[in-house]
Amino acid sequence: MPTLLSVARAPVPGGLPGRSLRNLLSPAGDPEWRDRLFAEFTSHGIENFAPQRTIRRGDYKLMVSLLMDATLFPEGRLGEQSLADYFPGLPGPHIRLYNLSNDPFEQASLAEDPVYSELIEELLAELEEWRVETNDPLLDVDALFELTQWHIDAVTAVQFQKQ
Fold first, then answer.
1. pTM score over 0.90
2. Is residue 60 within 8 Å of residue 119, measured between CB atoms?
3. Three-class SS of 86-132
4. In angstroms, what CA-CA distances link 119 with 38, 69, 98?
5. Coil, helix or strand at residue 77
6. Is the distance from CB of 96 to CB of 116 less than 8 angstroms?
């Protein structure tokens, strides 16, 4: 939105997230452009529920799969239910780290390699800060459980209707 408003030469309201890309379109570019990219994915439809949060800094991309957090969902379960039974496309494990220069197709996560533990901690802290700044509703564990249960109920209803 800031880019569209800037190009239209309209005022950009205070508190609006993001920055205009207009300066990047000029020949000189903007040498002070950000060095991080954050992204969130929650769901595209009932059965494709896989909430993730991501940070990219330099060559590294760290992805956090919220449903794969063993502290929240031990053994990938919500009570007696296996999350994989309802959401077969769940990515895992909980934290994945890729060097996109060496692995552009994200085939080999570096998250288990102790060489990257400090980088992972830094990226997790930055991602958490961003989630707080942007009021990520899934920081609230109860909201995550409620949304997960809603998707489970919806998947169950769709499966029942198919029978």
1. no
2. yes
3. HCCCCCCCCEEEEECCCCCCCCCCCCCCHHHHHHHHHHHHHHHHHHH
4. 16, 19, 11
5. strand
6. no
Q: Which of 1, 43, 37 is nearest to 21 (CA)?
A: 1
C-alpha to C-alpha distances, 162 to 102, 151, 154, 158, nearest whole angstrom: 44, 17, 13, 6
Question: How many whole angstroms separate alpha carbon 1 and alpha carbon 18?
Answer: 8
Q: Decide if 63 contacts 96 (C-beta within 8 A).
A: yes
Distance CA 148, CA 150 (A): 5
Q: For 4-37, write each residue's pLDDT tens digit.
A: 898 898 988 887 777 787 777 777 666 666 789 9
Q: What is the CA radius of gyration of the chain?
A: 19
Per-residue model confidence as pLDDT tens digits over 63-84: 999 988 888 888 777 777 788 8
